[in-house]
């Protein structure tokens, strides 16, 4: 090798080394930039998640306020809606997600089932004796009125099913639409059992509370008539202590 070509080679090596250092610096800068992006993204994600949770809490607080407003008129039922919602969720949990998904909206529907009662006059709501046929007709409009109230609110759209159909019966003898069997949304069929369970096991001015055992008997006797037999089956798999715990916690 000549001296000249040796010098040329040394230069070439130096040039390549310099280029390599330059590329390494570039790569390091890029990595740093990427790390910054990732950190920014994590921060945005964290904030979004916090915001979503805050929104969910606000929704829940709004729904609770609304359901409390309804119940405030109906003093004897106490925290009926909250208990029914808890019972309903226990039963709903027994169904696979392909049939019934446990969403906040489902719980909203349970909590707001009687929201339509805001439109029922006190004289009917508080009438101590039995209702005459005109009063009964008005009273039986509360599921329709309720579903109209919640229909306008986007985050309550799913809840509307429970509100509208919570007085339907498996045998078709319910109201307001006289739906039967699986035409009634499953959430509303689940709710119907939870509702009767709470009605029976809480004290009313005209009768004492029944025992859970008695309520179970009544509900089973209505399987296939008032209630969907599959919902009654699901209800039967839940232990007494689960219901007793809910009743003790929400009173
Ligand atoms: Fe109702």
- The beta-strand count equals 0
Round the Cα radius of gyration to an integer and report it: 31 Å
Count up the helices.
Answer: 11
Any idea what the shape is?
Answer: elongated
Global mean pLDDT: 92
Q: In terms of structural class, how would the helical and strand content be classed? A: mainly alpha
Relevant terms:
251 residues, mainly alpha, binds fe (ii) ion
What does this protein look like?
The chain is an all-alpha fold and 251 residues long. It contains eleven helices and no strands. The chain is elongated, with a radius of gyration of 31 Å. The model has no long low-confidence stretch (mean pLDDT 92). Fe (ii) ion binds at residues 113-114, 142, 166-167.
Q: Topology of this structure?
A:
Blueprint: H1 3-73, H2 80-92, H3 104-111, H4 122-125, H5 133-139, H6 142-151, H7 160-165, H8 186-201, H9 212-221, H10 229-236, H11 240-249
Bound molecules: fe (ii) ion.
Question: Would you kindly provide a brief summary of this structure?
Answer:
This protein is mainly alpha-helical. The chain contains eleven helices and no strands.
